[in-house]
Specification:
Layout (H helix, E strand, L loop, with lengths): L1 H7 L11 H26 L2 H9 L4 H30 L4 H4 L7 H10 L3 H39 L1
Length: 158
């Protein structure tokens, strides 16, 4: 994958080789299908009668989406976001080809420290990486929990 991205984005008009954008694009296009499939699977499980009942009670499209559909798909969104983030943070296969001197990923640094025999530094980088991932997961979880509780309290007041 990494070599393919280098070959595809190594000439104008899309000269991205050696930039941070090529890393981000690689991670987005590589892991976004998992999130889409997760959302589609969850939407297929939602009973259409729930939305039909909301329309019968006078709700418009925006209200049905924000008050009914969106809270139902938040778990799938959260799991897909966490999966994509963790995979992007720990990916090394394509990233090792895309990293330039300006952008050094932590996973590549862990690999180079291990290859050099500096296992204590590699372990330290690994602990930092784990703490970054855990803090991201907790922040997203708190953010989504607050959004759901605000949405439910607004729904109850209407």
């Amino acid at each position: 994958m990494g070599i393919g991205y280098i070959l595809a984005f190594n000439s104008k008009p899309l000269l991205l080789t050696g930039t941070f954008a090529i890393l981000v694009l690689n991670f987005i296009f590589r892991y976004i299908p998992v999130g889409i499939q997760s959302g589609v699977a969850l939407l297929n499980q939602v009973d259409p009668a729930i939305e039909e009942a909301a329309y019968t009670l006078g709700a418009d499209d925006r209200t049905v989406f924000t008050k009914i559909t969106l809270p139902l798909i938040v778990p799938a969104f959260f799991s897909a976001l966490v999966y994509s983030f963790v995979r992007a943070m720990t990916a090394i296969s394509a990233a090792i080809f895309l990293v330039s001197a300006n952008w050094n990923l932590m996973t590549v640094q862990i690999l180079s420290q291990t290859d050099s025999g500096r296992l204590s530094e590699a372990c330290a980088f690994s602990v930092v990486l784990i703490l970054l991932i855990l803090s991201f997961v907790l922040i997203v979880k708190l953010f989504l929990k607050n959004k759901i509780s605000l949405s439910n309290s607004n729904f109850a007041s209407e």
